[in-house]
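Look over this today:
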Amino acid sequence: MNKKPWAGRFKIETDKLMEDFTQSVSFDKRLYKYDIMGSVAHAKMLARSGIITDAEAKEIVDGLNGILEEIKNGEFIFSVSLEDIHMNIEKRLIEKIGAAGEKLHTGRSRNDQVTLDLRLYLRDETGEILKGIRAVQGVLLELAEKYLDTFMPAYTHMQRAQPVLLSHHLLSYIEMFKRDCARYGCCYKRINIMPLGAGAVAGSTLPLDREYVAKLLDFPEITGNSIDTVSDRDYCIEFTAASSILMMHLSRLAEELVLWSTEEFDFLELSDAFATGSSMMPQKKNPDVPELIRGRAGKVYGGLVSLLTMMKGLPLSYSRDMQEDKEPVFTAVDTVKQCLYILPPLLKSTVFNRDKMMEATRKGFLEATDVAEYLVQKGLPFRSAHETVGRVVAYCLEQGKIFPELSLEEWRGFSSLIGDDISDVVKTKNIIDKRKTAGGTARDEVKKRIAVLKKEFKVK
């Protein structure tokens, strides 16, 4: 039985059921690199402050580096009886170097140690996620440039609304992901604050140099209140919230990939490399990757709700409930990264059906708004123009016609303001190219936006 660090106070050994129930090493062992990194900085600070000798600090640092190699090589044995990654590493350090190892925990608590580990971990993972978002944006930008001459219906209420460029539609996701990058960037600033030195709750009587530790670990600032430091998990919640919004965006993109790959839409074909078949129906080609991205969004949402619920009733400062902070964060990290890693190759290998998309713009009276605005330019109030075009639509539905098939005589039966230039008004190409408002779907505007994004992303 491993001796507990609090053994002096207790007369009875911890029950095995208690050990199994309270352990976190089964999942927090992934923090080993950051726990060792923080411990190395702490040991150097203790020596610099005269709390331990330089020789002891060297023993500790060498021992910790040896443990790091043991873990990397799969030689380290993690023990549930030692509860967490912190105590597992400390116990092994003492086994390796003896009394000097017992001095490492001087001036710190697991309360400030764990939040340091989490901050170091999330600092790295946030950087990786930002790289992943950029990779998805890069592929979308490539596709937008490739499909500059492909028209498609834009939808509102899942009904065909107005014609747009496929490029314009794809660029809309780049804008979503830009906001995600900004959210992670803001979150990163609040993650990147050094908490070690807060101790269990009140700081320490020892001359700890927190600024020196922050410098060693590349933190720009230290936390300002020891009580808040050990009780704060806002950065975990904020990270998971940013991840939830990102997953919502990824799920919306995935939903369109699912819809557009159906026979009903037939707007695109996913590569066989990113689809599966049916075990029963030989004809099937299923969009599993987008479906799983869509489904996995719920895992990240669940983690956010879990964290908020865990924290909402906790009095200051630390409570053991907060051990439950890690798994939702780890799940968010893993899920987001998996989705971001698979999307670029999936999107690159997707083939969009230009002809089918173009054909879809010819049905549904997508020209209606343009005809109304044409009448407005002729002097008709918009509400009257709207009603007039509505009557034209009703007539076409009765006659089984579309706008380009109407004769000038038929058009003029609804308004004498309509001239023979109406034929140009209802051409899809013209409809798109006239939408020159900044951020609109006109090809010139989309080209401008692509140029701006290429410069922003440093794409040649």
User: Anything to note?
Assistant: Strands lie at 151-156, 159-165, 268-269, 351-352. Residues 360-442 form a domain with the Ribonucleotide Reductase Protein R1; domain 1 fold (CATH 1.10.40.30). The chain has a mean pLDDT of 95.
